[in-house]
Amino acid sequence: MSNKKQEQLQQFRKNNDQQAMTTNNGVKISEDENTLTVGDRGPSLLEDFHFREKIMHFDHERIPERIVHARGFGAHGEFQVYEDLSEYTSADFLTHPEKTTPVFVRFSTVQGSKGSPDTVRDVRGFATKFYTDEGIFDLVGNNIPVFFIQDAIKFPDLIHAVKPEPHNEVPQGGSAHDTFWDFFAQNPESTHTAVWAMSDRGIPKNFRQMEGFGIHTFRLVNKEGQSYFVKFHWKPKQGLESLVWDEAQILHGKDVDFHRKDLYESIEKGDYPEWELGLQIIRPEQEFDFDFDILDPTKIWPEDQVPVKIVGKMTLNQNVTNVFDETEQAAFHPGHIVPGIDFSNDPLLQGRLFSYTDTQISRLGGPNFNQIPINRPVNEVHNNQRDGMHQMNKHEGQTAYHKNYLNNNDPHTTPREEGGYEHYQEKVEGRKIRKRSESFKDYYTQAKLYLNSLTQPEFDHTVDGFSFEIGKCKDIGVKQNAVNQLNKVDRELAERVAENVGVELPEENEEVQTDAKDSQLTMTKYNIPLEGHSVAVATNGDISEETLKSYAQVFADKHLNYAFVGPHPKAISEDFGITETYDTAHPTLFDSLIVISDGSDMHPAAEEFAELAYKHNKPIVVNEKAKEQMANSKVNFDAPGVITSDDPTAIVQAFERVRYWDRER
Question: Locate the Catalase core domain: which residues (predicted)?
């Protein structure tokens, strides 16, 4: 054997030794295919410690899933503030524009289990973990700015009502059933959030194109001890988009992982999603200047009254490498805050501060969940907490108490002036009572405010949302009570839903009078960039390689994602061809459609692609020959957003709007 071969073999053995299979105690394993037995056909032996360890660990691989937000997916990134905000807060990560703060974000649905579909109608969780130099700050929010309840004591009731009904565990992943709508009708504080959830906001297009909200009122506190009330917002730089309901339902079956795959693949391709952080700030002396209570979590602070100040940007640029290690073991908690951020007396927030620790202990097996890598702060941790299940730190020394002489009083406390956390010294007084503030009892004005902000298509979609969900209820009394509640918000909404679900129209109430203009379809702040959208090219007949490459070049120049679809896969060259078939692809998986034909008989699936894309109001381009062959289809070639052209760049013109809602009317 040559010297070179010997060197290679030695290196291989060295590398192989580094990857040698071992038990969890570090003992190398000689065989991993068979249990230890008496002879090759005899009984297994109890002394087989390797099998015992391996099967024991497998039997305990699954930890309890979250009670809510079980279906989730996460990614890593970074945050950078645009300007020094020390006027409002002493938080280090909000006062140093030159500093980049690592983040981890977990998106989720609320109702369903881990195996439920991504595209159900539901509130989405939007939880952000900031790894600041002063400790971890968790902004644990949703994609809807308000919540169903005002006091945390009602949270178990809400979740018991929205979860699958206990007698048959149905339905999974949605709220279209009796117990939820019974809760809605009997607890009118849920009205505002229900209107948001039944609108397009309840079925976001993807994680990248939805807003995030901290929901609660927090405090910012500066170095001088001055306090400001604050709400946190995430504004997507990709724009704001939603699915249509028919599309969402089809996606349940076509791609149950539609949202998580979209996020993962976008980051893998380098199309890093970005959000800007916005703050709504109210001075303490303004607390009672509004016709709503700023501590009420079922209320927004209307942006025309309290503008959103854009202060920084978050970019997600790294996928997780192990979903369990990172996404599933991530322990978020609204009580994880840093100096310069504090709580308000929002009763829902106050209850969440108590509840989340219990949840993490139950899910993650003990009090040391903060030692799991995804939950560890980037700064050092020193305290006198010891032992407990899953203790990973090695504590040395004689003392584990404060104060002490034996260890020079280490670990020691730190004054506020030197960075130690100190709560805002709010003066409070009053009797101990169980009572809701009278200022919380307007349940309908802001629900009407939101309805008034919608365009006609969005309003129609909201009618459809309520009609589907309430219509799925079995009990006629539940349906009637739910429509009675809608009647207190908007007469047209109640009339149309009552007719659709088959209940009596309630007596007419005096309309809530309010106005707003904040539609996701008309807001200029949500202009949706062309880059990153997807195009399906449905091919019919023998399309030349030159033609396909001319389309691909346009897509590449405009940073569009695309796939060529045909009856069968076709490798035109080594790295180029028709990669999808009409069996594997579907128009709901794409943002737009191009149909190109050579004039041969139109494949039925290509025509079906076009008809469904048209139904879902997506941009469509067809070449001249395809138009001729589809003359009897359900596609109206004179409708907005349907372009006839043999020019590959026509898709850019079609993308003038991402949906052509006027087709619906």
Answer: 22-410
Taking the C-alpha atoms of residue 233 and residue 127, their distance in angstroms, rounded to an integer, is: 12
| CA distance linking residue 171 with residue 163, whole number of Å | 8
Reduced to 3 states (helix: H, G, I; strand: E, B; else coil), residue 635 is coil
In this structure, the chain runs to a length of 665
Q: Domain 72-173+201-375 has what CATH class?
A: mainly beta
| Strand pairing report for 580-581 and 561-566 | parallel
Q: Is residue 352 part of an annotated ligand binding site?
A: yes
Q: What tokens does 474 get?
A: 């079995």
Q: What is the pTM of this model?
A: 0.93
Domain segments of the chain as ranges:
72-173+201-375, 530-664
Conformation bin of residue 502: beta by default, left when phi > 0, alpha when psi is -120 to 50? left
| DSSP per-residue letters across 376-390 | --SS----S----TT
- Kindly state the DSSP code that residue 512 receives in the 8-state scheme: P
Determine if residue 71 is labeled as part of a ligand binding site.
no
Q: Is 73 exposed, middle or buried (0-12, 13-18, 19+ CB in 10 A)?
A: buried
User: Could you give the residue ranges of the DSSP H alpha helices within 83-170?
Assistant: 155-162
Question: Is 66 one of the annotated binding-site residues?
Answer: yes
Tokens of 598: 């050579």
CB-side exposure of 159: number of CA atoms within 13 Å?
15
The closest alpha carbon to 273, from 285, 282, 265, 283, belongs to 265
DSSP calls for 488-532: TT-HHHHHHHHHHHT-PPPPPPPPP-------TTT-GGGPPPSTT
CB 449 within 8 A of CB 516: yes
- 274-282 vs 642-644, strand pairing mode: unpaired
pLDDT, tens digit (0-9, with 9 covering 90-100), for 496-552: 999 999 999 999 877 666 776 667 776 544 568 888 899 999 999 999 999 999 999
Q: Which residues are catalytic?
A: 69, 142
Task: Consult the annotation and say whether 356 binds a ligand.
Answer: yes
The two structure tokens encoding residue 201: 């906001």
- Cis? peptide before 604, omega within 30° of 0: no
Q: Is 532 left (phi over 0), alpha (psi -120 to 50) or beta?
A: left
pLDDT per residue over 72-95, tens digit each?
999 999 999 999 999 999 999 999
